[in-house]
Amino acid sequence: MAKKRREVSLIVNGKKYTLSIGEKTNEVAPHHTLAYTLRETLNLKGTKVSCDSGSCGACTVIMDGEAVLSCTILTIECDGKNVVTIEGLEKDGELDPLQESFIKHSAFQCGFCTPGIIMSAKALLSKNASPLEEEIKEALSGHFCRCISHYQVIDAIMEASGRQVTERRLIREGRESSLKIIGKEIPRVDAKKIVTGKVEYLGDLTFDNLLYGRVLRSPYPHAIVKRIDKSKAESLRGVRAVLTWEDVPDLRGGTPRFKRLLDRKVRFVGDAVAIVAAETEDIAEEALEKIEVEYEILKPVFDAQEALTDSAPLLYDEYKQNILPSHTSLFGPNSLKELVTGDVVKGFSDADCVVEDEFSYEGIPNPVPIEPPSVIALWEKPDRLTLWVSNQASYLDKVTLSRILGKEVNVRTIGLPCGGSFGTKLMSWQVQLFAAILSKKTGCPVKLSLRKDEHLSTFTLRPGVKLKGKVGMKKDGTVTAISGDLIIDTGYYSFSTQAQLAVGLGEVQIMVRCKNWDLRPKIVVTNRNASGIVRGFGGQEIKCVLIPLLCRALETLNIDPFEFFKRNFVKVGDIYLWRDGNWYVYRGIDYSSCMDKGAQVFGWKKKWKGWLKPTSVSGSKRRGVGVAIHGNADVGEDVSEAFVTLHPDGKATLFSCVTEHGTGQTSNYIKMVAEVLGLRPQDVYLSPADSLITPFEFGPVGSRGTYAIGSAAIKAAEDAKAKLLAQAEKFFGEDATELETEDGFVFSKVNPKKRIPWYKVIGWERTISGYGRFEPDYTLTNCLMAFVEVEVDVDTGEVEIIEIVNATDVGRIIDPKGIEGQLNGCLGAAGIDTAIFEEIILDRNIGAILNPNLIDYKWRTFLQLPNIKHVINETPFPTHRFEAIGVGEIATSAHPVATFMAICNAIGRWIKKYPATPQRILEALGKDEKVRARGS
Amino acid sequence: MRRFEHVEVENLDELLELLSEFKEEARINAGGTDLLSLFKDRYLFNYPKVLINVKPVKELDYLELVNGALRIGSLTKLSTLARNPVIIDRFPILRETVLTIASPQIRNMATVGGNLCQDIRCWYYRYPSSLGGPLLCARKKGKSCLAVKGDNRYHALIGEKCYAVCPSDLATALSSLKAKLVIVKKGAERKIDVWDLYTPQGLGIGPDEVIKEVEIPLEWAKEQKFIKYTLRKPIDFAIVSVASCFKFEGGRISDCAISLGGVSFRPERLKEAEDLLRDAKIDEGLVEEIKRRVLSNVRPLSKNGYKITIARELIGRVLLSLM
């Protein structure tokens, strides 16, 4: 007869476990998933959980020989099963050949998805020792990776199965170099930990007495909280705190600092109404259901244009017409708020052609890094708050929170490896403060981790941008004037939108040389989730609407966009207004040569047939090409500081507040220090990203990692080395300039055989420390030109991306696999696919985000990988010790507009709104049934 | 996750006994790939109290050729379908279809019965409690379908009060094979057509009933084709799908079945088109005629008219490929 189980026995990684069914710590409750049991009961944390609903593959394990999703399986139903997790792949301390191959190919970026991918690959290879590339893609088609490790993963699996990896995606001539480490293919220092599942992300930490935080969220887009009854929730066993706006201090964040942490008014569906801390996540969730809230419903506004009208409801009484001030103190007293220079009236009158049009990039996509936004907070003493954070720039969390909490509280942040951020996790202040005040109330550490639906509905989106503008151009492609109304929809508040606007306005000048500008943007609040920091930081959004406007003029004058961009991209001596409101003179390199090479590799000259003309037609399938460009003077933005300490045993420590978030840059800083000091990378240690022990670090944002953070680390190493050599003078009787160091020895350049170990120079009871600081430099920009070819089926509206060529120049490649990963990233993180299918879908009647899951929110799978090539020139940038600059951040930015252009050229019509969904394509072609019905 | 009682059964009789006892209060957990979302996302207002694990019921995991039909036990896994030699040889459409469903890991757990009975994907219906939901909709306590006035780009063209589509690609394919479902309850057994499993308000079988097997007639479906239109491959549910089976005699179509997915609360058999095709020779004129007639009496919602364009185009392509 039907039975209730008393226990469940299963084998995990060869070891048999018999677990009782029950509610105690070491037991299995009926609702426990296998993922939960593996992680929490058996402490096997290599298996990751991201979506917890069977749509991302992170939790993949092998069960009875098959890859399965451990988040969709109840442990109670696993009796007699044989389970293998990532921890089970090592045999006698030896890595599985698959893991070795992943290390060799750097087949990961942030690494959070990697254990799951390896398990699927292992299951595949166990059945099919030599799979075809298509079979590998098919086997991995359920894996979500936002950094885009896909190509390198396929290489790694091909090689592990004995196939030749012939694919060459990096096209570079390379440079002669005497450097030993920089530019070489050396595995990342965290590679082994990543492929064995041993990286400790925030969710893998264990604490005694840890409480779990959850947030009660508003069902209404705009309402006043009239009454909250939390008594039932508070009386629930295991609930330790329930806090509402009435219970918490008036803490405010945002730009200006106007958004209350918990407010009496809610301004979007998902806005925080109350927060709960409880002994388990289940209890916290149950408590949320027991909080009774009475709302007074207000009229919402979802459209930015409508929000500007007099009849629109106000989100904040102090901001009339829902317009926020455009200033940001982050960029000093004169931050760039508008782009008004020259004389546009004259500019338009000088033009041979003036066009006006309107485009919108309002898909408000969410980059959805795979690791959820999370924090653990411990308010230890009245004046001391420690946070374990997952962010690409953990020192900035300290700065943000210190400014909100005031100087009475000493905030310490400890940055952990970050499972992707793409800028978004810099906006974690609300999540962090919820946990912090719950910790203050309870005296216990509190963990708060967003569910995937909360992540998609309440965490950082791209800004929505609409441009109604006008362009004047001469027949030769000289732009004489640009003007327009730029409406920027920031959602219910702004954290950084003013800063994104400032940078975006700077970047458009880097793209197009024009003397007369009149762009006066408005930043508007609406009743939807907030927009904020995302890779591309303002520039991507503005270009997505400005470039199509320019294209209308290029179309009228029949000018090739490649030639236009090449000619217009910033050249030495050009000036631009940058984010701080100051003019800068460009002193970098001319990027024309990499653009030419990119065009040649892509075959632009052959494929470009003119505006709104397909490259080729085959039945209903039409191919089209597009090109766009992005460059940012952020490679040298903001301040970095570092210490390097030399130890007598020939090792060194780099003290820098950097966390690894997928770019591989932490390894690169180590390599830079090692190169300067003549050490092996494994002899250089990186401090924890603990604000208590490291100096200030703005973090790897923008593309500043290589040039700014790298330079600080280099300077610290050089400073320490100079001290070392100065101290060594007396042993050699030679001037420090005649000395060099290598492998923990100082030697004479004249007589290299004379070597003295560091311990003799330093002494066993001493160390030597050097300090380095990087000060901002806005006179350099990076550059990435993207060429895209698409195929559109004009009878069904289907779009396929066929080929991408990226062209850039980085001075010197620090890590070949790393830069390739960054550039492959154009296919992830709210990049290229925001032109075709990636968008947040907001119901404009009820204000709810309708696709807060990884099925309805569209991301690119392993089965849809276009051909991709990266042309990378290496023209030296002399102001960096290794003559290098960064390019990572801008990898996504030029692609949406290039793709959009390619689609328009393929179908022969302009589309005005992103993304170009099948519905919009068919509508543009007059093939949407609704349109036809109306017309007839 | 929301709590539930958990019981396990080892054979069909035990299962039917339990279902007759618990009725609406119980839910069967087969692969579990969809059902757990209900407890995690809490998108309903009423929840089943008991979850019945049927994984140990080996008697429902089979594929056999008996009496002129292929019988597939309802607990057969989707991945088994995709690699079974009989399927590959005689019902390639099922393999083609299965490979477009979800992801390999899901197909390794998901079952035929579970796929047919999975809950609808409507984003209003499934809106999670963690974001202020669940929402009142026509399938729950609400008066109207929120999709009608809202964003209905993925919704059905054909519905009644509710405009959720039948989410099962397998149902679309099985309809074109003219498959039947054997439905059992304690002391009774009946057979229904696959499309009759679905009504605009939910599954057309009782809470005490369960699908025992799928029965597919052999021999008639010689030409089989499944096309699924999605934004991405695989993972996505169909925006539109077309499953079709044909038998030719002397250059003419002697029998056929065409079923559309993604447009209706059920797999929509195109009987009118089938009648036109029967005994006909396909030519371009006929193809155009059929394209014109497909879904011609349907009034789309505000944002899903493009599905008609796509459906017609896909059907046209299937027919032209047979010329």
Largest sheet of chain B: 5 strands, antiparallel
Given helix and strand content, the structural type of chain B is: alpha+beta
What is the CATH superfamily of the largest domain in chain A? Aldehyde oxidase/xanthine dehydrogenase, molybdopterin binding domain
Annotation field: number of helices of chain B: 12
Number of helices of chain A: 25
> Which structural class is indicated by helix and strand composition of chain A?
alpha+beta
Radius of gyration of chain A: 28 Å
DSSP helix fraction of chain A: 25-40%
Structural domain tally of chain A:
4
Contiguous uncertain segments of 5+ residues of chain A: none
Strand content bin of chain B:
15-25%
Q: Would you identify the CATH architecture of the largest domain in chain A? A: 2-Layer Sandwich
Strands side by side in the biggest sheet of chain B: 4-5-10-6-7
Strand content of chain A: 15-25%
Largest interface: A-B, 80 and 73 residues
- Summarize the amount of helix of chain B as a percent range: 25-40%
- Biggest sheet, spatial arrangement of strands of chain A: 9-13-7-21-18-19-20-32
- What CATH calls the topology of the largest domain in chain A is Aldehyde Oxidoreductase, domain 4
* Low-pLDDT residue intervals, each spanning 5 or more residues of chain B: none
Shape of chain A: globular
